[in-house]
Description:
The structure holds two protein chains of two kinds. By secondary structure, chain A is mainly α.
Amino acid sequence: MPYLFVAPNMLIFLTFIIWPAIRGFQISFYDSIDGRTFTPVGTGNYRSIFGDPTVAEVAKNTAIYVVFYVTISTILSLAFALIVNEQKFAKSFFRAILFLPVMLSPIVVGLIWNDVLDRKVGPLNALLQAAGGGSPGWLVEPKLGMIAVIFVGVWVHLGFYSIILLAGLQGIDRSLLEAAAMDGATRPQIIRTIILPLLKPTTLVILILATIHGFQSFDFIYTLTGGGPLGATTLIVQYIYDRAFQTPIQYGLGSAAGVILFMIIFAFTALNFLLGKKREAI
Amino acid sequence: MNKNLRSKLAIAASLMLSVGLVATGLPSAQAESGVQPTAAQLAAWKGKEITYYFYNDSQAELDTTKSQIAAFEKLTGATVKLDVIPYTSLDTQLQARLAAGNAPDVARLNNPGLYIKDSLDLEKYLGRKYAADFLKGSTLQVTHPTTKKLIGVPYDLTVNGPFINLDMFKKAGVPVPTSWNWATLVEAGKKVQKATGSEYAFAIDKSGHRVSTVMSQFGAFMVDKNQKNVLPLSKTRAEKAVKIITDLYKADQAPRDLWIGTGTKYSSPTAIFLAQQTPIFFSGNWQVAALEKDAKFAFAAVPNPKELNGGGWPGGKFLVAFNASKTPDLAAYFLYYLADTAQLEEMDKKAFWLPTRNDLVAKGIKYATRASDMDVFLADAGKTPAAAYGIQSVPTLTGLIYNKLRDLMTEVMAGKITVKQAIQTQSEFIDAQLATLKK
């Protein structure tokens, strides 16, 4: 009977996730320029990827993005969750504001920030100039481009992670916090010794989710920078997209890159999970 | 423009466009065309549906297309499902649809060479003579490279060229150019920028196709009609042309953010021109309708700068029917209907297109407004050198060659490589691409 209840979901999961993943793995051993005729190439696509000099650049960009995105997202979402949790005034309003970017289409997010960050006519640089600053080329300088992309990525997901952490915070027994306060513990002490340890399982979820989101980031980046300037914000998913869908189409190569991405995400998720389990055991 | 001049220009355009065909030796159409639907066909089409994969440069194109579809549906009893696609994802979506076995019946494309294998042989449905209805040069891109059969219809002819903001030129006291070269264009742009305080002096579509115009004006070309790489023959000229553009971007006199900050995507500075942030906008005649609708200032198309050559750079949109269509005869007839004299004349007039049909070229299009702008483009079509059509001899590679040039220019603008290196790399890329044709 329980299998019957999960059957509809499993059917969708098998049809739209598992089956395409298997097909993608299979296609990664073929060459196809139109998705209709396939020529077997063995491990040729994988060798091409590892022999492609742009892959090293893409891997570096992805690593930088993921490390900063995951770290900043986790710290900030934790901070916001703590602040909002303590909020007495207009609690719902601030939560809604925090969550608002999550509800925006990533494409729209990219377009909005593309306007905001425009070097000459963007409002951000107008503010900076009014404050006596310069006009940084957010979308023109490779390093600034990466900073812009990380910032927007964090901005988009912050509300989502904060809400999850907020739920975790509200699950903590208040009597523990009150007892600590009565014993004279300061607020930082309570956070460090009670809240953070009890919030570890939720934080682990955030870390896993942020890592996955980090590796999968594409849509808002595509409309924000298009992977530029000079490929500085081209991450692995855009590499896959470019190979698979931009002329000249190389479905096999795109699929092989997709398989590699899957393996990376799987490895990171497993590692996070194992480390979390180990900490819990301790 | 008076009738005589219009006729002369039309003949000039026709002659220039014909050069490509004569050179490649395509056979002329011979058989009779039989395209009027029979009663049996009309009965068979009743209730059938075809999909039209479409993108538009202006609202006028979309509105006219919708009204023509309504008339077609009334005539045939069939239904046409209009799929409106953004230009930036035109090829990406279509290639994915073809791969997924979900091909539309008919599409409006600007790069038909990518779909040669999937395109319907129109001669089977519209007769061998049908191709002769169109300017010969414009059918090159929709002629099958080996069978030489017509696989698409030239729907509109486009010519690249500059627009200027007349109000800004007037304010700056800079006369409107009637003829100029690149040095005077750049000088005029900088003068207007200085006088009006605009953000930029110049802007051009982020497109290798548009930059090819500048190269052509300096006498540099990439591929000739015999599918040979001719860039090594005109490297210095190509470098001059590319340097003019990249220098403007490097000096911040053109919108760097739009070119460098958009990765490997196409982008157009139309919004920048409309916001009066640049006095000169280099694009093409397809912008006229949108600019007429949205510009809150006086603007005009002005002649292309002349160096060794004048004129623009040829391009256009094409109607293609796909061989996966379940009703190929209906798809072919829909395509024929859209490109017949009456429908095309209506579209040319309303959307400011240049005609591709010989009869319309001979007759001339009477545009209700912006006729002087269209005359400028038409005149430039006549001045376009024959060598500009050479690249159309490799329809499957044109997009790749243009995009590579665009991306190399990005690297030059960002100071990563020199113009010389860019042209050298472009030449090597062309050689590598042409080699794939022999495989």
